[in-house]
């Protein structure tokens, strides 16, 4: 396929992963975004709260497909593909990619049926995970207390979000990708931006050029689709970063619906202790009472985090508040042709591949989503070529 000019809107984990794979597929790719990865310590907790990627843990935790939530069946293969990509990246760049492989432990007080099925040796999901990452159900003797009714352990990964994303962005740049910082009003605005030549790699700006550069496709990795999708909502997460490095990523689902977890960030990034999942809560301020509760509950579930005997307090570095870009029915990963009015959003028309609404799973689904983006964009180009041939 001939090289195409593609603009990716968004420099979170979804935008950067997609941009890298599109570049690898041979296209001229430009990332446009308001926010870019930077050292975590410099990301502003209020001005940049809508840039979710810095505030994520981020660990991989398997979510078995559930009939009650049909999108989980579509997401599972994306998480498997992401796992393999992370494994490869980690083995090639163990010191720089910001990825750590370590034990993942899960404790559930009220396990739903799709978790209980994983206890069966013939369950297909459990079997594939057993060979991929040593997944095994833990015996009751290893539960932390009697409230826990089901537990498992497997080898998984955590990323230090800003170390990981700056690593990916640097690779994108080294591989010839272009980066533009700009705030947009809508996805269709890309088609109407300043001379397209300025944005594109494939056709450098030239006043003598008689032919105008064209944007062949836009990827919408804006997290929330500019507030223009009624199915998108925020799920607030409050966590706390401590200096101690936990030796595992531990997740406990409590029967009252609350969560207790640790996500060691590695690369001297401490450990995130979490966390809340508050649908529709836009509050930017951390609640000190929530912080105390999160630390207490985690210490009770996993006292191994107190490495020195007798120590019962963790070293708090800072509170974290983030907004998971959640979408009713799961993420939107599909193509759409906008008309010249930008599908009603103004701006301009053209092909848009949507990849937003990843909720609390952006990292663990990222490479699977990026593969779908490449697939969707190339399918569109192929259709265009076939249409053009048919007209000859
Ligand atoms: C507390 C917490 C814990 C989490 N833990 C995990 C975890 O353990 N594992 C996991 O997989 N996920 C986790 N997540 C979820 C994960 O962080 C998100 O799913 C992921 O970061 C979403 O990435 P994104 O690229 O879609 O969006 P974002 O990171 O929000 O990126 C959006 C991009 O679009 C750009 N953009 C948006 N609007 C505009 C505009 N108007 N003009 C120009 N650019 C624009 C932004 O500048 C940014 O570059 C967690 C999230 C939170 C809050």
UniProtKB/TrEMBL annotation:
Cofactor: FAD
Gene3D superfamilies: D-Amino Acid Oxidase, subunit A, domain 2, NAD(P)-binding Rossmann-like Domain
Organism: Cladorrhinum samala
Protein name listed in UniProt: D-amino-acid oxidase
Cellular component annotations (GO), alphabetically ordered: cytoplasm
Binding annotation for D-dopa: 324, 360
Protein family: Belongs to the DAMOX/DASOX family.
SUPFAM superfamilies: FAD-linked reductases, C-terminal domain, Nucleotide-binding domain
Keyword hit for Oxidoreductase: yes
Coiled coil residues, start to end: none
Record keywords: FAD, Flavoprotein, Oxidoreductase
Residues the record lists as binding FAD: 52-53
């Amino acid at each position: 396929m001939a090289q195409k000019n593609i603009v990716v809107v968004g420099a979170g984990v979804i935008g950067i992963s997609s941009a890298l794979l599109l570049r690898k597929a041979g296209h001229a790719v430009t990332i446009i975004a308001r926010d870019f990865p930077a050292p975590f310590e410099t990301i502003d907790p209020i001005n940049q709260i809508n840039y979710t990627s810095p505030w994520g843990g981020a660990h991989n935790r398997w979510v078995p497909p559930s009939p009650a939530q049909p999108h989980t069946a579509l997401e599972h293969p994306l998480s498997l593909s992401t796992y393999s990509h992370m494994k490869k990246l980690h083995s090639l760049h163990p010191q720089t990619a910001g990825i750590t492989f370590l034990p993942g432990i899960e404790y559930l007080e009220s396990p739903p049926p799709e978790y209980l099925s994983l206890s069966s040796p013939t369950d297909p999901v459990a079997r594939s995970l057993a060979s991929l990452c040593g997944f095994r159900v833990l015996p009751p003797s290893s539960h932390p207390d009697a409230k826990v009714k089901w537990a498992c352990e497997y080898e998984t990964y955590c990323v230090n979000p800003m170390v990981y994303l700056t690593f990916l962005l640097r690779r994108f740049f080294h591989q010839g990708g272009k980066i533009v910082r700009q705030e947009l009003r809508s996805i269709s605005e890309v088609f109407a931006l300043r001379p397209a030549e300025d944005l594109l790699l494939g056709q450098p700006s030239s006043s003598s050029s008689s032919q105008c550069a064209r944007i062949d496709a836009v990827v919408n990795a804006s997290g929330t689709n500019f507030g223009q999708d009624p199915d998108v909502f925020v799920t607030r997460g409050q966590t706390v970063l401590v200096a101690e490095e936990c030796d595992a990523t531990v997740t406990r689902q409590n029967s009252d619906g609350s969560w207790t977890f640790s996500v060691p960030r590695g690369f001297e990034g401490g450990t995130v202790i979490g966390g809340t999942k508050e649908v529709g809560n836009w509050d930017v301020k951390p609640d000190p009472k929530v912080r105390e509760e999160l630390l207490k509950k985690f210490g009770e579930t996993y006292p191994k985090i107190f490495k020195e005997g007798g120590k019962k307090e963790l070293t708090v570095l800072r509170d974290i508040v983030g907004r998971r870009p959640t979408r009713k029915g799961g993420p939107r990963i599909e193509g759409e042709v906008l008309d010249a009015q930008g599908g009603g959003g103004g701006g301009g028309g053209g092909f848009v591949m949507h990849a937003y609404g990843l909720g609390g799973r952006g990292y663990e689904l990222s490479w699977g989503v990026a593969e779908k983006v490449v697939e969707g964009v190339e399918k569109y180009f192929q259709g265009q070529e076939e249409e053009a041939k048919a007209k000859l």
